[in-house]
Structure formats: structure tokens, C-alpha cells
Amino acid sequence: xxxxxxxxxxxxxxxxxxxxxxxxxxxxxxxxxxxxxxxxxxxxxxxxxxxxxxxxxxxxxxxxxxxxxxxxxxxxxxxxxxxxxxxxxxxxxxxxxxxxxxxxxxxxxxxxxxxxxxxxxxxxxxxxxxxxxxxxxxxxxxxxxxxxxxxxxxxxxxxxxxxxxxxxxxxxxxxxxxxxxxxxxxxxxxxxxxxxxxxxxxxxxxxxxxxxxxxxxxxxxxxxxxxxxxxxxxxxxxxxxxxxxxxxxxxxxxxxxxxxxxxxxxxxxxxxxxxxxxxxx
Length: 281
Hints:
By secondary structure, the protein is of the alpha/beta class. The protein is globular and about 60 Å long. It has helices at 18-26, 49-62, 79-86, 128-140, 156-163, 176-188, 218-230, 248-257, and strands at residues 6-13, 32-35, 39-45, 70-75, 90-91, 96-99, 112-115, 146-150, 168-173, 195-199, 209-215, 232-244, 260-268, 271-278. The protein has eight helices and 14 strands. It has two domains: 6-85, 2-Layer Sandwich (Alpha-Beta Plaits), CATH 3.30.70; 127-278, 3-Layer(aba) Sandwich (Rossmann fold). A seven-stranded mixed beta sheet has the order 10-9-8-11-12-14-13, sandwiched between helices. The chain has a four-stranded antiparallel beta sheet with strand order 2-3-1-4, with no helix packed on it. A three-stranded mixed beta sheet has the order 5-6-7, with helices on one face.
């Protein structure tokens, strides 16, 4: 009798270092990711994991990170089926419902259904920052806006924007899996003609934008704000998230120092999102 193939589930508590840690693991070709508000998981072939863990621990130490994680080894069942069954439809706001393609849903009148199949990228609606970004975008978006989504992940924000009035959305992400996933999800939602994704960072975003969405880390947001401002149309708006409520003051001060007016702020759990408007004469 053949021994069942085994897999490893690696669980981490959510911290401001999530994107850095995920980047360290992505280079080792994980089988998949799952992210919730308080934790996230990565999955590996059990035979492959010892080599991954050795390199991962070495990089944590060399770069000065401390990270506690839990490990669980389990036998092969139908891993893809079980993982897919863990992704359920979720109503993220009064206007948006996110569902994977393998779930049939009936939405109430006025609710926009976004069909998002996650790959090795983030933006399923399960994380508080995705929900915050979608809710804040509802108030910041104007009909006909040209939208830039930085750190586009599954593409959910750009797809939602064009489904609800944007003339075009451009998404950029430095992760190749995320880029591929976003392109596929745009096709699933029938918006490939108005929703365009690029592999890379802000340098790939040509032209000016009325609304810039950025759900990345605090430090990445602060570093990229000057570049965002250069790409903002007169009277344009930012919606920023990916940082904790304890970091919100730093984001506010940076925006105000650039001549932006804080329009709205929301929080969920320990996460925060801020919308700001252009004030230049």
C-alpha cells in the first residue's frame, strides 16, 4: 500500500511584517496561501518543507526578523477541494459580495457580485483591509474615474472599480502569481477590456489617475506617496490601507504634509484605512 503524500501547513499571526515574510516564502513555490484577519497560512509539500524552513530561518535571522509560526503535517486527501471549500462567499459591504467561481450565489438587488478565485495572492475579502478598501472606495469613486490599484493581488479592487463606474482600472503588483491571478479574475468578471494589470510597481502605471488605491504596508505606502502624488489628476483622491490603527497618525501626517485633506477614516479589528483628497490650487 502506497504511503499517502503529506503536506505542511505553516500558520503565522498577522503582523506588520506579513508582506515581507510572505515574500520570503513565495520564492520557495508554496502550494497556496490562505489569509484571515488574525492569521495567515502557507502550504508546502512535506518533503520540500525542511529545505524551505532552513532557508527561511536563516533569512529571518540575517534580516533581523523574529517570527513565531505553527506547523501541522497532514496526509493528502483532496487538498485542492478542501482548500476551495474553505473559501466561502462573503458580503464585504452593502454593495459588494465576493464569491469564488465554484459557489453559486443569489445576490439581493443593488449588490454587485465579484467572482474572485484566489491563487497565491491576497484579496479574497476575508482580510479586514480588503473589506475596508472596498467600503472606502465606494465613497471615493466617481463615475468615469481612471483608477490605479497598487499591490493589486487578486485584482478585486480594480475589478470592483470598473464594475461600479470607473472608466478604467490599472493594477500593478510585483508578484508574478498575483499578476496572473488578477488577469484571470478580470476575465471571469468580463472586464478585461477596462481592467489592465502589470507585473511591477508604480513605474508600470502610465498617465494620471483620479483615484489611487494602495493596500500595502505602512512603510511601502509612506515610501510611494510622492510617486502617487505625481500620478494624481487635479482633484484626485487616495484610499490607503494595509496598516494598523496605531500607524494611522503617521499616514495622516504624511498625507497632510503633501497638501492632502483627510476625507474619511475607518477601522476594523486592528486595521485602518484612510481616504484623502487633493487640495492643490
